[in-house]
Amino acid sequence: MRRLWSIAIAALAPLALVSASRGVAAQEAAPALSSARVTAQVVGGTLAAPIAFFGTGIATKRIARAMGASDERAGRAAYVGAYTGSWLAAAAVPAAIAGDGRFPAALGGSAVGMLAAAGLVRVGNWRYDADRRACGPLCWTMGALVFALPGIGATIAYDQSRR
């Protein structure tokens, strides 16, 4: 498990450095961000991601079944479709609201947010797997962050890539 995390961190570190350096150069020419815009991007991405997750998952499963796939294969296809739809939706909202950044940056930020959310889920499962009743408000906060992180990542990356 540690090896997997170290590989993921090693793979994402250069991406973070490149996007940070591009973001600084892009911000010199871009006008200031408004708090209303950033809030709308984060909230919109946070709401769109789970809706897209369920919608594309259900649609993918139905399409796979209609094409003759077994229930097991249709279920696997549904997960691929659900995560892909969630990834695209979280990235599309900041781009739809603004229009002065780069969509590939939003896709990268959404992917980083999804990886962070997956890590947070693993930490929560590791910490509270024995007794779920003992976690209280921390579990609710972690759950909210799992939904919000793809939208937050997409917003940060998109706004850093502004022209």
Tell me what the structure shows.
It is a single chain. The chain has 163 residues and is an all-alpha fold. The protein has one domain (34-160). It is 84% helix and 0% strand. The chain contains five helices and no strands. It has helices at residues 2-29, 35-66, 71-97, 103-128, 137-160. The radius of gyration is 18 Å and the shape is flat. The termini are far apart. The relative contact order is 0.17.
Give keywords.
mainly alpha; flat; 84% helix
Short description:
This protein is an all-alpha fold. Helices cover 84% and strands 0% of the residues. α4 runs antiparallel to α5 (137-160).
List the helices and strands and how they pair.
Layout: H1 2-29, H2 35-66, H3 71-97, H4 103-128, H5 137-160
Helix pairs in contact: 2-3, 2-5, 3-4, 3-5, 4-5
The DSSP helix count reads: 5
Low-confidence stretches: 13-18
Q: Give a count of the beta strands, DSSP E runs of length 2 or more.
A: 0
- Give the tally of structural domains: 1
Quaternary organisation of the protein chains? single chain
Coarse shape: flat
Main beta-sheet annotation: none
Q: What's the average pLDDT? A: 84
Summarize the amount of helix as a percent range: over 70%
Classification by helices and strands: mainly alpha
Strand content: under 5%
Task: Please report the distance between the alpha carbons of the first and last residues.
Answer: 39 Å
Question: What Rg is obtained from the alpha carbons, in whole angstroms?
Answer: 18 Å
Order of helices and strands: HHHHH
